[in-house]
């Protein structure tokens, strides 16, 4: 071989090596500062974002995100360093301004920041703090402060948490899910940010709600924090303020709609269930237009549920049954209750459907029972139909379709249609289509006034005055809208206007009211947090294929409704305190497991044979009920076993035997 050709061979292999080294280097390097030499990083994915030496946060360009396996781990909008600094400074200044204006919101936000920083530094410690002080910190990491966090998310954003799937990721999601570092994910909470609490469309900022809900999964249900995944599906926003905000972190385009929207959610569902076939997906805070459609679309094929529709319905039913007991009546009297509901959105309709079914079951469980249950509800809404929107646009102020919904109303939402009152009926009651809430309350004299309207103060003085004429010995007011400012009324307003003898519940926490003379007006928190962690845990442990109505009903009616003692209910306490959320979650989960087995839906946990599970359930049902959560925490390597395992000597041997069987069952799954 001539020297020349040897040199050629050497140089071509060298060139190949150099090429591959260059390619390798280019995949591992990026610029930390414009105009500077590139940084070489030997890390990938979240490890980069969690490393203060390398992390550029939202300033990673799209090509860098692809090269460094970061795609989907950051909100989609790429920011410049200048924008990042501006966002940080804006936020800092805003806190100073707010602090002068009034203490409460900035104080709660400051607490959230401190907790969030702890979450970033040391997750174990974060959850220990949360669990030990759940009553104090649930209102910070969850409702109501989480709403404020979502509203201020652009300013608060420091380190990403969870995954973002945007409309721009179509066709990529199946590979993007592998950017998430955990091989096992048990729970996903997903939102598209279109209706965050009662705060409307917050776009990508809605990720905060998914994070807050999963904090409760960890704190209340003992789900391992390494196996939860908050998800934001960013399909744009119709919030004009966010669309114009140069510092907004999400896609700055109007929301996708129709088939295009469904295609994005379909792709997301397929991707997550392909990587984690046993995962459970909780849909959260989707506008009602999509909440029902997506629930119908997926509920028979995937392990999923909609918390606002189904979780809220269960919690409301438990409270409504509690209100019957508080009147000194048996629960079976529920079908006689007259109920006025304000707000026929995803939560309102969910409650109406479930309450109607519960009543029908109590009075015969047949067609005519179902029909007669319908007449116990009066629904008031303020939907502006498409036609009216159009007429408003062209300046013709016609009457909006608000007030009492009757069969006379045009363009009634099909989900609300079954509750449209018949004209003949309401004429007899002295009412008409569109009657105001106050008129309806005045004429119907209901036992219950329930709000899921997202309108703060909707239960005005006039409405509450009208409720004084209620035919109930103990009228109940459920002001369930969140966060605090959106509550339909405060407990002070309710007790002072309607009287000391009422039952009061709100979605966000309020303090009890001092009624004088040593009496306390109890303020219950009627929030779906009492159900969703147990629904998720029970579904996970049973390995149910889907989440059936029966499983949800079992959770609400068997357990939550019966949870309070007679003594408590008489005092007006119809929901438990948040401090007992772990105990409630355990029982809710046990009810869900049992029902899944009874309905033949349980497939066992991972490799657990369903027949074995059935046997286990029959023999050890009562024990499971008292030990399920401890066992789960223990076996899933969750570091914070909630209550000490039952060590009572008389039950110890049985308990240990149960632990042994459950250990066998669950370890099969964990070893997969
Ligand atoms: N406590 C809980 O556990 C819980 C659970 C879910 C939802 N929520 C709260 O319920 C509220 C509604 O949630 P959603 O998902 O049903 O929202 P949604 O937007 O689907 O429904 C709200 C409905 O209220 C109607 N409305 C608006 N103004 C009204 C008025 N003046 N009078 C009567 N109706 C009016 C709207 O037309 C709409 O149909 C939110 O504040 C949410 O935070 C609470
Ligand atoms: O998030 C909550 O506090 C309850 C409910 O899911 C809501 O949307 O308001
Ligand atoms: Mg919600």
TrEMBL record:
GO BP: any one term: malate metabolic process
GO molecular function: malate dehydrogenase (decarboxylating) (NAD+) activity; metal ion binding; NAD binding; protein homodimerization activity
NCBIfam families linked to this entry: PRK13529.1
Database matches in SUPFAM superfamilies: Aminoacid dehydrogenase-like, N-terminal domain, NAD(P)-binding Rossmann-fold domains
Taxonomic source organism: Escallonia rubra
Cofactor: Mg(2+); Mn(2+)
Domain Malic enzyme N-terminal: 119-299
Cofactor note as given: Divalent metal cations. Prefers magnesium or manganese.
Known partners and oligomeric status: Heterodimer of two related subunits.
GO cellular component: mitochondrial matrix
Annotated Malic enzyme NAD-binding domain residues: 309-597
Active site, per annotation: 142, 213
Protein name, per record: Malic enzyme
């Amino acid at each position: 071989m001539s020297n020349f050709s040897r040199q050629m061979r050497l140089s071509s292999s060298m060139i190949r090596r150099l090429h591959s080294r260059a390619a390798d280097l280019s995949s591992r390097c990026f610029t930390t500062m414009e105009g500077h030499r590139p940084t070489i990083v030997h890390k990938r994915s979240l490890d980069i974002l969690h490393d203060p030496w390398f992390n550029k946060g939202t300033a990673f360009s799209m090509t860098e995100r692809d090269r460094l396996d970061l795609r989907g781990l950051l909100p989609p909008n790429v920011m410049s360093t200048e924008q990042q600094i501006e966002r940080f400074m804006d936020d800092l200044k805003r806190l100073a301004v707010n602090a002068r204006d009034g203490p409460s919101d900035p104080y709660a936000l400051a607490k959230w920041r401190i907790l969030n920083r702890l979450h970033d530094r040391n997750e174990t410690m974060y959850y220990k703090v949360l669990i030990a002080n759940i009553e104090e910190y649930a209102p910070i990491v969850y409702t109501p402060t989480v709403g404020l966090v979502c509203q201020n998310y652009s300013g608060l954003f420091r380190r990403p948490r969870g995954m973002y799937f945007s409309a721009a990721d179509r066709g990529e999601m199946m590979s993007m899910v592998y950017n998430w570092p955990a091989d096992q994910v048990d729970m996903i909470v997903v939102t598209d940010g279109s209706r965050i609490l009662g705060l409307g469309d917050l776009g990508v900022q809605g990720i905060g709600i998914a994070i807050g809900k999963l904090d409760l999964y960890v704190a209340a249900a003992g789900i391992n924090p390494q196996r939860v995944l908050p998800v934001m599906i960013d399909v744009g926003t119709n919030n004009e303020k966010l669309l114009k905000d140069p510092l907004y972190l999400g896609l700055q385009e109007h929301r996708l709609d129709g088939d295009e929207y469904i295609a994005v959610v379909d792709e997301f569902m397929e991707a997550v269930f392909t990587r984690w076939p046993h995962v459970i997906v909780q849909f959260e805070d989707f506008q009602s237009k999509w909440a029902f459609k997506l629930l119908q679309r997926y509920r028979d094929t995937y392990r999923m549920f909609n918390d606002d529709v189904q979780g809220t319905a269960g919690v409301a039913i438990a409270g409504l049954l509690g209100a019957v007991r508080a009147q000194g009546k048996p629960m079976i009297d529920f079908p006689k209750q007259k109920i006025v509901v304000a707000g026929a959105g995803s939560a309102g309709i969910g409650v109406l459907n479930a309450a109607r079914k519960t009543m029908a079951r109590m009075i015969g469980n047949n067609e005519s029972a179902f029909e007669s249950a319908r007449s116990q509800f009066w629904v008031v809404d303020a939907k502006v139909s498409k036609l009216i929107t159009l007429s408003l646009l062209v300046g013709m102020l016609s009457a909006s379709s608000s007030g009492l919904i009757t069969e006379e109303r045009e363009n009634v939402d099909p989900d609300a249609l079954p509750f449209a009152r018949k004209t003949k009926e309401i004429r007899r009651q002295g009412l008409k289509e569109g009657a105001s809430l106050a008129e309806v309350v005045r004429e119907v004299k209901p036992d219950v006034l329930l709000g899921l309207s997202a309108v703060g103060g909707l239960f005005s003085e006039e409405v509450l005055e009208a409720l004084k004429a209620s035919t109930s010995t103990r009228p109940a007011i459920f002001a369930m809208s969140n966060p605090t400012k959106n509550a339909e009324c405060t407990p002070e307003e309710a007790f002072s206007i309607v009287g000391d003898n009422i039952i009061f519940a709100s979605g966000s926490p309020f303090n009890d009211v001092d009624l004088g003379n040593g009496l306390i007006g109890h303020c219950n928190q009627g929030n779906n947090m009492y159900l969703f962690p147990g629904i998720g845990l029970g579904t996970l442990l049973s390995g149910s294929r889907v989440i059936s109505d029966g499983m949800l009903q079992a959770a609400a009616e068997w357990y939550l409704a019966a949870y309070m003692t007679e003594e408590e209910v008489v005092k007006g306490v119809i929901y438990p305190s948040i401090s007992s959320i772990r105990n409630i979650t355990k029982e809710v989960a046990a009810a869900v497991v049992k029902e899944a087995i009874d309905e033949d839906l349980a497939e066992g946990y991972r490799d657990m044979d369903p027949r074995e599970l059935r046997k286990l359930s029959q023999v050890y049902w009562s024990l499971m009920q008292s030990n399920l959560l401890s066992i789960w925490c223990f076996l899933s390597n969750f570091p914070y076993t909630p209550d000490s395992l039952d060590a009572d000597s008389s039950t110890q041997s049985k308990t240990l035997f149960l632990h042994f069987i459950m250990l066998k069952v669950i370890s099969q799954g964990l070893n997969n």
